[in-house]
Amino acid sequence: EAQLMESGGGSVQAGGSLNLSCTVSRILGSNCMGWFRRTPGKAREGVAAIDSDGTIIYAGSVKGRFTFSRDNAKKILYLQMNNLKPEDTAMYYCAADFWGASTCHVMAGGSWRTDFGFWGQGTQVTVSS
Prior knowledge:
There is one protein chain. By secondary structure, the chain is mainly beta. It contains no helices and 13 strands. Strands 2, 4, 5, 6, 9, 12 and 13 form a seven-stranded mixed β-sheet that branches. The protein has a four-stranded antiparallel β-sheet with strand order 1-3-8-7, with no helix packed on it. β4 (about 30-40) and β5 (about 45-50) form a beta hairpin. The termini are far apart.
């Protein structure tokens, strides 16, 4: 079974930066992988993710500030977050799945898929004004 573990969260002031990491193990095949976040009382939202063909997708609210990357050899996902804002405060999760198919896409019907089968435990990001 796949295992994911996030790290790199913390508390920063607005305008600061953080670099989240997600170590991935026991995943085979081409997968969709991504970063999601959740704040209390709100639904989980997609932040940045990659399709099986390498296409990277960003939420509009983070485009230009966040950068998704992946080190295939080390099996680590990264989320470089710059110019952080208080509204970025959330628990951040990494996720992976391929839904049993040879290809996958993180968007379905114009919306982010959230039915990933494998999730990390999350890392908290807090941005103060």
